[in-house]
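Human: Here is a favour to ask of a fellow structure person. Comparing notes only helps if you start from a blank page. I am asking you to supply a protein in sequence and structure-token form. Write it directly below this note and I will take it from there.

Assistant:
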Amino acid sequence: MSDILVIGSLNMDLVVRAARMPARGETLPGTDFHTIPGGKGANQAAAAARLGGQVAMLGCVGADAFGEQLVANLASFGVDTSLVRRAAGASSGVAVILVDAAGDNRILVVAGANGQVSEENIRIAGEDIQHARLVVMQLEIPLASVAASARLARDCGTPVLLNPAPAHTLPEGLLALVDTLVVNESEAAALSGLPVTGVVEGFAAAGALRGQGARQVVLTLGEQGALVSAAEGQVHLSGFPVEVVDTTAAGDAFIGGLAVALLEGMPLVEAARFANAAGALACTRLGAQTSLPARHEVMALLG
């Protein structure tokens, strides 16, 4: 049994780099193309494993070449993939990612086999959820399965870290099952109904999300860093200045770092600072899992 159980998506990322994003109806030349393993769930599992966590992944891929590559790549990070199912008749999930010269991205996701992570899969994995020290989830699998996982984790006494991305209207009562909610600005705004463009508004949105039931909230602010909102108070952590190449998976690196740090017993603010460094380093390299930093790199940035 692993300390961290990630329940979520595995995608193959089809990455195109270009000088800028095309306008509507416009065709531009790309500078290069890459196929890179990704998916929010797999990224977060790989990030946590790269930082020293003992991690297992629950998800679904297609019975195709991408599926084989996705599972093999995740296993190469030391992630236990025994709970990743191969779905006959479904394609593996894919994401088409455009990256401009400034490192900003635009992403389209086709769920494919990720849509077949069922409540029955969650029930079968009940013993793994019970013995995990932390369950980590996102929203690239069916919402019903996310909710079922959270309910089962709560019944087992296993803490839940939820990254509600991409943003959706959440099932009623889900946030009350969440111990740590990690959101970016757009996700915080969508879930709280409040505008979020900086630190002050971020604190208000985080407070509103705690009012909806989340025990503690971490809100990432890109180059402005991150903020933490919990019963003990609210803290803003500045970002780490880095040369940005590609922001893909920066949030996933953050979450992997946060999960590992929390299980190592770091206080939430210290854990968020560790995660902040991991997310910043992921911005300095192209791609999703190819950009994830090692433990010694994070410690060097932290000084």
